[in-house]
Design brief:
Layout: H1 3-10, E1 15-22, H2 23-28, E2 32-35, H3 40-53, E3 57-62, E4 65-71, E5 75-82, H4 88-99
Antiparallel strand pairs: 1-2, 1-5, 3-4, 4-5
Amino acid sequence: MAISKIERVLRHDGIVAVFDQTAEQAQRGDATWMGDERWRPVVLQAAKLRHIAQEPSVRVLVGEHAVLVSGDDRHVVGVVFIKGHPVVKSVVRMVRQLLRQPSNAPQPAPNPQPSQPDPTPSI
């Protein structure tokens, strides 16, 4: 993930921290993180909760803040933001933008369709 995308999200008033983790980073126990370090353990636990719940996204409320973690098996992002702040309306859009693959990234190959049996019976 390009750091500039994460920085762009973090610059918004009301955003406290941003987490970004690819499957490769998860295997190494690594992630990209920007913002208030005190939120790191909360976001990591929210990412685990997303995985345990087998949901594409989870929202965790902690006092005056909310944590939104979203993604799939290949890429997970999380954003910590202030509840009730005007930025809340844009957080889901920001998360979707972080999850998008850059246009120059290799796209996964489509799954080949299984061959269909020949409809004519053999005699």
